[in-house]
Predict the structure.
Amino acid sequence: MSVEEGTANHGRLLGTVRGPQDVKRMTAEQLDILAAEIRDFLIAKVSRTGGHVGPNLGVVELTLAMHRVFDSPRDRLLFDTGHQAYVHKIVTGRQEGFDKLRQRGGLSGYPSQAESEHDLIENSHASTALSYADGLAKAYALRGEKRAVVAVVGDGALTGGMCWEALNNIATAGNPLVIVVNDNGRSYSPTIGGLADHLSSLRLNPGYEKVLDTVKDALGSTPLVGKPMYEVLHAVKKGIKDAVAPQAMFEDLGIKYVGPVDGHDVTAIESALRAAKNFGGPVIVHAVTRKGYGYRAAEEDEADRLHGPGGAFDIETGKLLAAPSVKWTHVFADELVTIADERPDVVGITAAMAEPTGIATLARKYPNRVYDVGIAEQHAATSAAGLAMGGLHPVVAVYATFLNRAFDQVLLDVAMHKLPVTFVLDRAGITGPDGPSHYGVWDMSVFGVVPGLRIAAPRDSATLREELREAIAVDDGPTILRFPTGTVAADVPAVRRVGPVDVLAESARTDVLLVAVGSFAGLGMEVATRVAEQGYGVTVVDPRWVRPVPAELVELAAGHRLVVTVEDGVRVGGVGSALAQAMRDADVRVPVKDLGVPADWHPHGTRAQILADLGLTAQDVARNVTGWISGLDAESVEPAADEATAKN
């Protein structure tokens, strides 16, 4: 059967799966065939849309076993993180939605309550599921409900502090709860840290057998999957496990440990899960899997096992089909290395995302000057504070959405000590396909309240390089540099600079001051052209440094009849709000209109689709600006007309 044939009818067995009950009825032989068909289905579908292919190829058998042992949705299955839930979606009857995975009107790339009763937590931030599970298990115990709670936690998620806080409470409560540690040695990149080393020692412990030549014949039933060879660990003979005691780390907490178990053997993992289910208390099932398992292109991708291709890719090679372009991340990575060449005190930190954030470029040249702390943004921020106290200038590169988790550390551990730490926020603003939990729209509002923190929003590659240098030159407090995802915007040269503010366009008339934040500079230029056609003059400025509000920006505002701000962050507490406050403080009484992202949960889609929905297009903004300024003209005419009437 070819790949296209397999996906056309979902495969002979996959086509019969409409819910977990269909999987429960299958024989062991059928399950092996179904696993092969699911892998072909995933590769074919995700290759057209982009998405998280590597993690899901690694949890096929594990997910099948879970749905055979537990009764979803009565039993609650939680995935940490949710990007490994594609197979769960397939088993729960959502195969058809994969044609538009992560696209408008299609399936979310994460669990979604709106899609299915089988989804409970819509999580894409790691290390949270055990806390959810702890609360659920307590609630069911208090209510007297016999319902199982199962949390599938990646070994990368276990590098996050919340997991260990939750484990401590789970052990104390003693409620029935099954924790499946999906141990593939990787989070986004190879999992690092003491826990990773411990799990590695379990895999290498001589008390366990290493299976070198296991070949799943069923996986060879389709040409795409082939006959992959894999190395997994089987549980040792009864008694040996206690002798070598690898489970001590968990059982010292008061949580029973089962494993390691071959996560690609449905029978083995099913047996372990049944034992854990029947135990009556908290149990950890340690499943050893391989990210990207069964797909050569993923297994040969040393960087991240095709963790999450951002778009369509070639099935044979795993390479993206879109022509390569210069990304914001690339510009940052290149400039950081150049700065590091000049300044030996510059070091990099990331939270398990060295490649996606560009820090890997620095690591390749200066491996001793880069620290990957695992999925632990809070630790990253305070560790950076320590590095700064030690005389270095740390550059912490994370996705914008993930820095939210470290607000307290940025506020009290970094800013209160006036430490020179630069936070580089990739994927700022509306990012699109990954949905609301990944949108980086909160940073300018949330971190805008931090005393002494400066925030820069470059508009193009030239200003990104310039503002990164300016940020790293700051030695008396923290800085944030934020930029969006995707291809870097075309350069927009400045006409002149007023203090830190770049003036991008000017008119003989000073009707409107249009403050275009970051990558909205190009939009601002188009808006100015459209509004000029209606007879009004627009000055377009890029503040470059949006927090604190530059005094020069307030002075420019005072010279215009109307101020309009456009930003890709939430309006509440955003740049527009901050500018309006600064103008009030300076007794500048020019009206301000702020355009941005409403504080709400916006569905997944392309960035362009979502911005259009929010009215953040050149056409929409120009229409609004024209209406507002013409309204001011009407207001100025009305009093004169009233006065003339009174005289008559």
In short: DSSP finds 26 helices and 20 strands in the chain. Residues 618-647 form the longest helix (30 residues). The longest strand covers residues 562-570.
